[in-house]
């Protein structure tokens, strides 16, 4: 069973890497329909995440009863936070060809704020999970959550053009 969890994570990683490699040839142009790409990614993650967690965590019935209600609330709060991230990503994509220094500064500040709030949310739910589950179980879950976040970040990065490839045309304001 432990090998199945590794297989799931490996498959997700390979898929993300393949998508990133495919996107390298398109790095200077945004995805034709970024909104549908992002929503598809979010739907795929929601569909697979519960199966991945179930397989990787091997909860006892008591742990399962304690974990899933808290997880459901965590996912709801995380989804609201991620909606803000999606808006920021769309803004970046829309402004990519004409991004100004002021735009870049604003977007960077919003991205840092998002990361800070995501960490705060994880800390909050680490405490909530710890009220019902052993710290080792909760730490294992958040390690898995972190790895899933990395996969999502890799896929999102592959969808967006990079300022690194835009050597000219960045306007100061």
What does this entry show, briefly?
This protein is an all-alpha fold and 173 residues long.
Explain this structure:
The C terminus is likely disordered. It is elongated, with a radius of gyration of 18 Å. The protein is built from five helices and no strands. The longest helix is centred in the middle third of the chain and has 35 residues. The protein has one domain. It has 173 residues and is mostly helical.
Mean pLDDT: 77
The count of strands amounts to: 0
The poorly predicted ranges are 13-31, 167-173
Residue fraction in strands: under 5%
Outline = elongated
The assigned structural class equals mainly alpha
Tell me the number of helical segments per DSSP (H or I, 4 or more residues long): 5
Percent in helix:
over 70%
Major sheet, described briefly?
A: none
| Number of individual domains | 1
End-to-end separation in angstroms reads 56 Å
User: H/E series, N to C?
Assistant: HHHHH
Radius of gyration from the alpha-carbon trace, in angstroms: 18 Å
Topology:
Elements: H1 2-24, H2 34-57, H3 61-95, H4 101-132, H5 135-159
Provide key terms for this protein.
single chain; 173 residues; mainly alpha; 80% helix; disordered C terminus
């Amino acid at each position: 069973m432990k090998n199945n969890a590794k297989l799931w994570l490996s498959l997700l990683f390979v898929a993300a890497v393949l998508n990133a490699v495919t996107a390298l040839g398109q790095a200077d142009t945004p995805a034709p329909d970024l909104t549908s790409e992002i929503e598809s990614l979010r739907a795929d993650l929601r569909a697979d995440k519960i199966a991945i967690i179930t397989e990787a965590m091997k909860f006892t019935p008591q742990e399962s009863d304690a974990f899933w209600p808290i997880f459901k609330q965590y996912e709801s709060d995380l989804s609201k936070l991620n909606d803000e991230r999606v808006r920021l990503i769309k803004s970046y994509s829309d402004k990519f060809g004409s991004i100004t220094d002021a735009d870049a500064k604003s977007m960077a500040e919003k991205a840092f704020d998002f990361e800070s709030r995501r960490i705060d949310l994880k800390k909050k739910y680490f405490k909530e999970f710890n009220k019902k589950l052993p710290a080792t179980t909760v730490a294992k879950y958040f390690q898995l959550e972190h790895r899933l976040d990395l996969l999502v970040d890799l896929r999102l990065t592959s969808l967006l053009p990079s300022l690194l490839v835009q050597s000219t045309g960045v306007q100061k304001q």
